[in-house]
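Example record for the data management plan.
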Amino acid sequence: MAIFGSIIKSLIDLKENFTSEGEANKNQEDVLRGLLKKAKDTSFGKHYNFDEILESDDIQKEFANRVPYFDYNKIDSEWWHKYHEGEEDVTWPGKPPYFALSSGTTGKSSKRIPVTEEMVESIRNAGIKQVSALSNFELPPDFFEKEIMMLGSSTDLQKEGDHKEGEISGISASNIPFWFKGYYKPGEEISKIDEWDDRVQRIAEKAKDWDIGALSGIPSWMELMLKEVIKYHKVDNIHEIWPNLQVYTSGGVAFEPYEKSFEALWGKPVQVIDTYLASEGFLALQNRPGTHSMKLILDNGIYFEFVPFKPEYINQDGSITNDAPVISLADVNEEEDYVLLISTVSGAWRYLIGDTIKFTDKEKNEIKITGRTKFFLNVVGSQLSVNKMNDAVQELENQYDIRIPEFVVAAKRADDGEYYHYWYLGTEDNPNATDEELAEALDNALKDANKNYKVARGKALKGVKLTTIDPNMFHEWNAHNKKKGGQVKMEKVMNEEKLLEWQKFLKDQDAL
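Corresponding structural encoding:
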């Protein structure tokens, strides 16, 4: 019997049973009050009179009235850039020891997002909550003795003056607790390899030496790594290498579009658990089986606000208008899309993280990621969000029994002067249908799912042009743009300029 695993499982069960959920709205008000108190003497806190906000009878309302929205470009140009000029106490006391590099999915240059010691602790606490939540899943005691493969970015952080820089997964992995290091794979040596392909090659070479029970990482890159391990060892599925693999904690994007592709890699069922770790913090986690929804972490140094995701509130660059209304946690509705705003222990304030979410269960404070504000296709009034695109692509998968782990779409005026949606679907399967037939099926699925799209198709949007390609082209595109591996998410929507670059890239790769 796995005695050590039984002890760990018992401790986790005990912790989960004695951990009080607390009252969500009170937790959030307490978090905001703590943030304001901590930062009231910073340059930001003085500029926006945090002292006066703290004296208000309704600090949440007063905070929303006094402090504007910030996206990365705005807060960096007005505040965060001062850290790099030697200033301290800018938006948070002291100077951050780390900056998380995030090129996002559309930006050409890396963003540098401050990561304080308090944020490192917040992420660690969220990780402990995730481990505690495993008591809700039916896992045998010996699972808790297996190793965990955390596929993130390089832990070889770059020293820049008085701080270190790297992707958030690399920063987090470089700060794992000492007691966890025995479980952590691929281990410190391999994790420091900067080149993604070289790191995956070493993982494949060492894979049989490890007894992996759980995987953690973004789906697109995890899928690629698993394929390389399977290919290297000439086996049919990953369970021939890691027979005790039982859990995969996905993160960063919705897992559903990748479900069919992963099922082809498993040899037996794997429990998929969704998490929400962004460069700005660990925001939510799935704490029960039978759902892909995640519970917001409301007592861990992050204060949440929500802006209705409607075209009139979204600017062309994905930012939100100054007059966009904000809704508190108490007033959200289920099954409505919201733009997520966060204020954090890293000195982000009313910060537009770029993701859209919806509440699937308000009572449990459970959400799903539905897309990105920049991945909102509304050039001709089609009002297509990523979740609508995902749903239509999944319908296509089911209709033709194929796997489509990646796709991208753009609206472009063709030579005939009419606007079309240009879709590129990544699939290795033969759908027994032409691209024209797939386009018609996709078009019909979108019409059924979105009345605005249906109206646009009868007016300004002429039709759908679809091309199926090798899904590896999406990975190579990211490599071409120096954004391969780690926290990088695949872009789903392109503007016309980016579409032309993409089409040229595909032609150069002989992919068309």
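Summary line stored alongside the record: The two ends are 56 Å apart (CA to CA).
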